[in-house]
Amino acid sequence: MTNPHKGRTGLDRVIRATGYSVHGLLLAYRGESAFRQEVWVAAVLLPGAFWVGRSWIEISLLVGAVLLVLIVELLNSSIEAAIDRVGYELHDLSKRAKDLASAAVMLSVLLCVGVWAAALWQRLAT
Question: Which position among 47, 91, 97, 109 has the lowest Cβ density within 10 Å, counted as fewest Cβ atoms?
Fold first, then answer.
């Protein structure tokens, strides 16, 4: 059986893909409190990157660190949704998948905090 959605090309595909992406962002914002909190932190940090960063490279690193947290949180939420789709019963592999995805979020947050702390230190100390 052929997937009817795979035959789309050109502008039609781009428009539909954009719609799916926006829908996913709205789902995450409405349904995931961690993502919602991270979006609000990003709303403060992203404009702040233009004050803290002294060059386009520094601004890019600051913005990238924030966006990485959001990206990893979206992936974490998708993994959790897929695991929950399979079933809610406790299973070692389900726990492992969710814990690994959670660890990825934690590492992205630690990276973001480290990048921002170093940039703020440099900005405020000199």
Answer: 47
